[in-house]
Design goal:
Length: about 500
């Protein structure tokens, strides 16, 4: 067993693929990840099958799509399906398996196959669990003060971290994983999963990392020609999240400050990864450890006027995917860029393949170091009015909104920023029809109602009206004493006016 490779799987939350220096971003500082990419393979066409936290993580841990694991919405109280998990499979093969950080399962202390989970669930105490990060803060003399910065977990206000640097969630997660590696059983290989909560809001970077960006001119959001058109319901809903920004004369400056805070959180994680790499090196484990870095989804960051995730534009759906092999395994290329279509379903079979472990028959993904490649990639998020679907063939991307039966088509080779919607361009009729056919073949459940007499017709058009935001989109409070367990909903920032809209 000693010759089996160790596995270090690193996940972040809300990190777009574009935010890497090695990917050509003009501002972001990611020296550690850039070095890892040059030491292995970066997959440029990696996408989240469902770009929202819980469904994505169910995909990661089971190697299955939302259709199989049962969530494409964001169900916080849905138990894991009865499927072999990645951790369970590694443990059955003799591995020790530990997770640190954000797991996003229910019940929250369910280990889903890990020997142990050192938990940071972003303060979701309403489900009856005080996570390990909250306990750590209490031990440091800051009981209940995690959210005293006043920032919400789903809005884009920002301020510097309000407690000492060592108490930041990024530092804590790194320390816990470093100690886990040091405390390993030396007779067994390790499967180690670290799940950083950032750069997901709240945007509370350390002042040190904010300072790194003060001398740079922060890049501005991209805007497509189609954003000035009458947008469909789902786009209207997302545009409303930036309402406060765009009502003020200082909107451009505010957005740049938000991006600066977001980039600072990314660079903080990047630098902390050096501690993990250094720990592996000092423990003489680095050359025999497979490293995979990725994210559950990205963040629109103001591009096309939109924020957060749940969308299939590049900044939301295209995710980083970096794979570094062991010193004696040439199946993972060095300083290579692989353009095949991959997703989170593929991580489990890839890591098992590299470790020489049989892949469960339930897994739907493909090994990223194998020869088999997919011709197209299907993505889905939401249901009914808030549904969005995607088909990507490696060059052309179709985004479908059932409300209003609206399609968008982008040529990502010529238009990587998705400026030009080609759905009404007669010269691209073939691509539109081809991808639409694939889309229809993938529909199931309530989505089948979008098809009438064999034709994709979608749903009746609707107008989106923002509801009162008294809850400030999952604002957290004082966590000492711990609040009681409740059935409190996390996000209620909209309502639907289901009136038909005249097309003319």
């Amino acid at each position: 067993m000693r010759n089996k490779p160790n596995i270090l799987l690193i996940s972040t939350d809300h990190w777009p693929a574009a935010l890497l220096g090695v990917a050509g971003h003009p501002v972001i500082q990611t020296p550690t990840l850039d070095s890892l990419a040059r030491s292995g393979t970066r997959f440029s066409n990696a996408y989240s099958e469902c770009p929202v936290c819980i469904p994505a993580r169910r995909t990661l841990m089971t190697g299955t799509t939302p259709r199989t694991h049962g969530d494409r919405v964001f169900d916080e109280t849905l138990t894991m399906p009865q499927l072999p998990t990645m951790a369970e499979t590694f443990r059955s093969a003799g591995y020790q398996a530990t997770a640190v950080g954000k797991l996003h399962v229910y019940p929250q202390r369910n280990r889903i196959g890990f020997d142990d989970v050192i938990l940071d669930e972003e303060g979701r105490t309403q489900y009856g669990v005080i996570d390990d990060y909250e306990i750590f803060l209490a031990d440091q003399g800051y009981a209940g003060q995690q959210f005293w910065h006043g920032m919400s977990n789903n809005e884009y206000s920002w301020r510097p971290w309000h407690l000492p640097e060592h108490t930041h969630a990024t530092n804590w997660a790194t320390q816990q994983m470093s100690r886990t590696i040091k405390r390993r059983d030396p007779s067994r290989p390790g499967f180690w999963f670290i799940s950083y909560r950032h750069p997901h809001p709240p945007l509370v970077p350390l002042p040190t990392y904010l300072d790194l960006y003060r001398q740079f001119l922060i890049d501005k959001p991209q805007s497509g020609q189609w954003t000035t058109e009458e947008n469909c319901f789902a786009i209207q809903a997302n545009l409303s999240r930036g309402f406060d920004f765009y009502q003020q004369e200082s909107a451009e400056e505010q957005i740049q400050l938000v991006r600066q805070a977001f980039y600072a959180l990314c660079t903080h994680i990047d630098h902390q990864l050096r501690v993990l790499i250094g720990t592996l090196r000092e423990e003489s484990l680095l050359d025999n450890t497979i490293i995979c870095f990725t994210s559950d989804h990205g963040d629109m960051l103001g591009n096309h006027g939109m924020w957060a995730k749940r969308l299939f534009y590049e900044y939301s759906a295209n995710i980083p995917m970096i794979l570094v092999g062991t010193g004696d395994d040439d199946r993972v290329g060095i300083h290579q860029i692989d353009h095949r279509l991959v997703g989170w379903t593929d991580i489990m079979p890839t890591l098992l393949d590299l470790a020489g472990i049989s892949i469960p028959t339930t897994v739907e993904g493909l090994s990223m170091v194998g020869k088999e490649k997919r011709d197209s990639f299907y993505g889905e998020v939401g249901e009914d009015a808030f549904a969005t679907r995607m088909v990507h063939d490696g060059r052309y991307k179709l985004i479908y909104y059932p409300v209003g039966n609206q399609r968008q088509l982008f040529d990502l080779n010529k238009d990587p920023n998705e400026v030009f919607n080609l759905s009404n361009d007669p010269t691209h009729r073939h691509q539109l029809e081809h991808l639409t056919k694939i889309l229809v073949s993938q529909l199931y459940g309530a989505d089948l109602d979008w098809i009438v007499n064999g034709k994709l017709v979608g749903l009746i058009n609707q107008k989106f009206l923002p509801g009162p935001n008294k809850g400030l989109s999952s604002q957290r409070g004082d966590h000492f004493p711990p609040p009681p367990q409740t059935n409190m909903k996390q996000i209620q920032w909209f309502h639907v006016k289901s009136e038909k809209i005249d097309d003319d």
